[in-house]
């Protein structure tokens, strides 16, 4: 049995951290996307997350050593299609506080690890379900990805220039903001209920629900007549000339968010257009104002404009790449990014004054922690039999 011991500078790394969720046990049934990210958030905050990997891996297609969404977790391999597989998962569930799964509706039930089976073993369990379409509705059984989920909620249609197709915001808005974050909120709220004398329950986290919910303020503005239901025509969607991005002379970009009058006044002063800029409240001249701002930004490099606006309240910032971001002085000072295992990555967030989260372990290698979990969770059967054979990585 493969038994991997991970060490840090301070010695043997423990399964549970000192974050606010220390002592909380989570079972994650392996998947891709928002489920693993949600489990990573819980692990970053100190929870003991055991990822149940399937033989052959989850199908992400990258070296698991670089799958940062599996940091701070431990991995066991259980074949849920083997005779003993469901029973081993239920043994874990009996000792857990939270379970996370991201299968299509009905799959967990067919595998013998659905809510009814799990809650029968552990009535206080919080059973978190992560899907795109939700557990019911006409599309519930359909395949999908982030882009389709945010498309039907109206969220994707808000983003981009009016004369082009919608801009795809990676998979951040759907998978992670509308999916993972809502699942985490849901399972923690349900855990609070269970620990307060209530019972366990099922949390149905659907990306379509979360993505729609993210636009709550916008729906209110539409109802009030303060938001046009089309791209690039509003205060916060790039339609406003003093809330958007502008190209610099070196082909880079600066981001401008000078919405309030006092910030706008400082912006046009530092930009050097205070004597030629049309009135900011004259919407009929917004196109002219945009051209004036764009022409001025093209006269200097991004680095030069960054120096001009440094230390000001003009609400202007350079648009950095993923590799540039960790080196920004502010992010470096706050240690927003950190290095662990030779990989630069975002540090755990948010921050806690008494119980800080931390990165304690590198991404879990499939099956590498079976013996440790069997010992710590008092499950000797976990480390025996074909259902728990570790994957050998190249």
Describe the structure.
Helix 1 crosses helix 6 (172-195), helix 5 (146-152) packs across helix 6 (172-195) and helix 5 packs across helix 7. The protein is built from 13 helices and 13 strands. With 394 residues, it is of the alpha/beta class. The strands form four sheets. A six-stranded parallel β-sheet has the order 5-4-3-6-7-8, sandwiched between helices. Strands 9-10-11 form a three-stranded antiparallel β-sheet, covered by helices on one side. It is elongated, with a radius of gyration of 25 Å. It starts with 6 loop residues before the first strand and ends in an 18-residue tail after the last helix.
Query: Level of helix content?
Result: 25-40%
Our count of helices gives 13
Order of helices and strands: EEEHEEHEHHEHHEHHEEHHHEHEEH
Structural class: alpha/beta
Q: What characterizes the major β-sheet?
A: 6 strands, parallel
User: What oligomeric state do these chains adopt?
Assistant: single chain
Uncertain runs with pLDDT below 50, 5 residues or more? Answer: 1-15
Mean pLDDT over the residues: 92
Our measurement of the CA-to-CA distance between the termini, rounded to an integer number of angstroms, reads 17 Å
Task: From the structure above, extract its key features.
six-stranded parallel beta sheet, 394 residues, elongated, alpha/beta, disordered N terminus
Please outline the helices and strands.
Blueprint: E1 7-8, E2 11-12, E3 25-29, H1 34-44, E4 48-53, E5 73-77, H2 85-94, E6 98-101, H3 107-111, H4 115-121, E7 126-131, H5 146-152, H6 172-195, E8 201-206, H7 207-214, H8 216-223, E9 243-247, E10 253-257, H9 261-271, H10 286-297, H11 302-309, E11 316-318, H12 329-334, E12 337-340, E13 343-346, H13 370-376
Parallel strand pairs: 3-4, 3-6, 4-5, 6-7, 7-8
Antiparallel strand pairs: 1-2, 9-10, 10-11, 12-13
Helix pairs in contact: 1-6, 5-6, 5-7, 6-7
């Amino acid at each position: 049995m493969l038994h991997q011991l991970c060490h840090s500078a301070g010695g043997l790394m423990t399964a549970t951290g000192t974050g606010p969720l220390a002592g909380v046990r989570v079972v994650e049934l392996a998947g891709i996307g928002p489920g693993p990210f949600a489990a990573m958030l819980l692990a970053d905050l100190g929870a003991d997350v055991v990822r149940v990997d399937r033989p052959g891996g989850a199908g992400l297609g990258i070296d698991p050593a670089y799958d940062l969404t599996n940091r701070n977790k431990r991995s066991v391999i259980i074949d849920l299609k083997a005779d003993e597989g469901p029973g081993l998962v239920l043994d874990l569930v009996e000792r857990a506080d939270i379970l996370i799964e991201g299968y299509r509706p009905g799959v967990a039930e067919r595998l013998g690890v659905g809510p009814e089976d799990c809650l029968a073993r552990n009535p206080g369990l919080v059973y978190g379900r992560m899907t795109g379409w939700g557990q019911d509705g006409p599309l519930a059984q359909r395949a999908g990805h982030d882009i389709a989920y945010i498309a039907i909620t109206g969220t994707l249609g808000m983003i981009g220039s009016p004369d082009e197709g919608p801009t795809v915001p990676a998979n951040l808005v759907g998978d992670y903001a509308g999916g993972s974050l809502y699942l985490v909120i849901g399972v923690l709220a349900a855990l609070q209920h269970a620990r307060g004398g209530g019972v366990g329950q099922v949390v149905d986290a659907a990306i379509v629900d979360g993505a729609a919910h993210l636009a709550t303020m916008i729906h209110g503005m539409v109802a009030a007549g303060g938001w046009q239901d089309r791209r690039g025509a509003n205060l916060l969607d790039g339609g406003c000339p003093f809330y958007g991005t502008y190209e610099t002379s070196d082909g880079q970009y600066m981001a401008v968010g000078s919405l309030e009058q006092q910030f706008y006044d400082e912006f046009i002063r530092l930009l050097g257009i205070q004597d030629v800029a049309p009135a900011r409240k004259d919407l009929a001249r917004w196109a002219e104002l945009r051209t004036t701002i764009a022409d001025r930004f093209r006269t200097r490099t991004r680095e030069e404009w960054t120096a001009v606006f440094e230390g000001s309240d003009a609400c202007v910032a350079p648009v950095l790449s993923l590799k540039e971001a960790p080196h920004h002085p502010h992010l470096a000072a706050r240690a927003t990014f950190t290095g662990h295992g030779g990989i630069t990555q975002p540090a755990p967030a948010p921050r806690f004054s008494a119980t800080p989260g931390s990165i304690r372990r590198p991404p879990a290698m499939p099956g590498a922690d079976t013996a440790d979990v069997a010992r710590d969770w008092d499950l000797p059967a976990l480390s025996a039999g074909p259902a728990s054979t570790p994957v050998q990585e190249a």
